Structure formats: C-alpha cells, structure tokens
Structure to design on (87 residues):
C-alpha cells in the first residue's frame, strides 16, 4: 500500500477504505486512526522520538545540561511550546 501511494504521489490517508481493502481484506475503518499523523507521531515514543513524552524528556535533559555547564537555572516545559498543526 505504501509503495502504491509512493508511486502515485498519494498519502495513505488519501486512499478510500475500498482502495485499502484491495491490498488486504481484513482492513477496516479503524485503519484511519492508525494512519493519522498525530497518532503516528505520538506512537513513536522510543528514545529521541517525536512523541510528546520524548520531547518532554529531551527538554528536561537539555535543562539539566544547561544547569550543569553554565550554572543557569532555566525552566523549560512543553507548556511554553506551541505545536503547530499543519496537517
């Protein structure tokens, strides 16, 4: 399905359910939640991944390193950052 989309310059979520079922008969409507960009990003929660929890962890680590190197107390939190939704 990904190969088909790549060849046809399509995003996965541009395919209809009927088109997706041509690739596998067990695909159902819940596929759309699985391929949603926000779901995909937040499910990538391995170290250094783009999920909310990993970004928060990275900010905390940066804060610790800045304090250690420069003796500066900076409080970064995800609340200060606004995520721009472009999808």
């Amino acid at each position: 399905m990904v190969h088909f989309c790549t060849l046809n310059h399509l995003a996965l979520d541009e395919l209809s359910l009927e088109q997706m079922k041509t690739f596998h008969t067990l695909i159902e409507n819940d596929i759309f939640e699985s391929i949603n960009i926000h779901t995909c990003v937040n499910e990538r929660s391995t170290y250094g991944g783009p999920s909310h929890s990993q970004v928060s962890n990275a900010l905390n680590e940066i804060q610790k390193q800045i304090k250690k190197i420069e003796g500066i107390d900076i409080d970064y939190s995800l609340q200060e950052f606004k995520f721009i939704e472009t999808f």
